[in-house]
Amino acid sequence: MKFPILASLAASASAGTILWDGRFNDLSSSTDLNNWSWGNQVGPYQYYIHGSSSVTAYVNLSPSYKNPADSGSKQGAKITLDSTAYWNGQNMRRTELIPQTTAAINKGKVFYHFSLMRSDTNPPAQTREHQIGFFESHFTELKAGWLSGAAGVSDPLLRWCISGQCDKWTTTWDAGVWHNVAYEIDFTANTVGFWHSTGGDDLVRVVAPQSASTSSNGADWHVGVLELPRSGYADSNEDYYWSGVYIESGSITTSVSGPGSPSGGGGGDSSSSSNTPKPSTSSVPTKTTLVTSTTTTQKPSTTTSTVATTTAGTGGCTAGKYAQCGGNGWTGCTVCAGGSTCKYSNDYYSQCL
Ligand SMILES: *[C@@H]1O[C@H](CO)[C@@H](O)[C@H](O)[C@H]1NC(C)=O
C-alpha cells in the first residue's frame, strides 16, 4: 500500500522512514480509541489494557499535553492511573495503548520515539515501581519510582532499563520537564541503545547499543504505564504526559519537532502523518505474519487470573540471562535462556541466573 508522506519528510533532513505514527494526530478525542476492538482493529492504537471506567478516565488528548517543541504533534495524551485503573482483575494498575499496525516495527533497526513528562499534579508515586513504554519481554523500558526488591522506601529517578538493568541511564524525574526518548532497537543484531534530550533539544545517543534479547511480535509495545502493587502504600492518582510517539527506520530523526507536521507542509492535513505504514526502504518485509488478534497478550475477556501475568500462559518467549522472568506484575517471558534458571528474589521479582 503506497502512501505519500514525502512532503512531511522533506521538513526534516535527517528523517528516517515512519513505520508507524502514534502521534495522536488522527484522533479528535480519546473516545476515538473506542473505535478499536478485537473485531474492528482500526486506528493507530489498540485500546484494551485499562480499567473499567470510560476511556476519558484514563486517556485524554490536548495540545497542552504535548511537548511544545514537538511541532509534528497537534496534541499529546495524558495517561492516567486512578483508583479504578485495574485491568481485568489484576492487582496492578495499568493504562496502556499498543500500536495497531502491520508494519515491520519489530524487524531490523528501528527507533521507538516518544516524549514523556510528569507534573506536580497527580505525580507518579516514588514509592512504587512503574514500568513505562515497555515490551512484553521487558528487554527495554523506562522505570520510575522505587524498584521492586530495592532497598529503601522511595526513588525519585527516571531510569532507562535494558535486560532488567536499570542503572545505565538515570535522571531525577523533575516535574514539568519533557524527556525526549528514542530506543534504538536492532532486532537483527539484538542490541538496544538509548537516545535522550530534554525540552526542545535534539536527541543525543547517551548509551551506545548493548546486547539484549530483543523480541517483539510487532504488537506488544506498551505506550503507557504499569504500576506494581506494594503493600502499605495507598493508590494515588497519577498522570503521565506523552507526545511524539512514532517508530521509524533508517536514520534517526534527532529533532524533537519530529518528522512532518500535523497541519502544515504544503497543504497536507492530518493524513500526511497518518499511521498508514509506508513500505520500508530496506529489505525488511512490510507485513509481519503476526496478527494482533493472536498477539501473545491475552484478550481481556479470556483472562480471569488475578496474578499479574498477562502473557505467561502463552509461553514461548525466552528471557535472557539476568533478565526478569517472573514476579507479581510480570508480563514478560517466563522461560530462561539456556544456562540460566528463573530464581525467585521476592514476590515481585524473579531473575534468570
Ligand atoms: C471513530 O469513529 C467515529 C465515529 O464513526 C469517527 O468519526 C472517527 O473518525 C473515528 N476515529 C478514528 C480515529 O478512526
TrEMBL record:
Positions of region (Disordered): 254-310
All copies of domain CBM1, residue ranges: 317-353
Keyword RNA-binding: no
CC terms in the record's Gene Ontology section: extracellular region
Family matches, as Pfam families: CBM_1 (PF00734), GH131_N (PF18271)
Keywords: Signal
Gene3D superfamilies, alphabetized: 2.60.120.1160
Superkingdom of this protein's organism: Eukaryota
Signal peptide location: 1-15
GO BP term, example: carbohydrate metabolic process
Comp. bias regions, Low complexity: 270-310
Coiled coil: none
SMART domains named among the record's database cross-references: fCBD (SM00236)
MF annotations from Gene Ontology: cellulose binding
TM stretches of this protein: none
Protein name from the UniProt record: CBM1 domain-containing protein
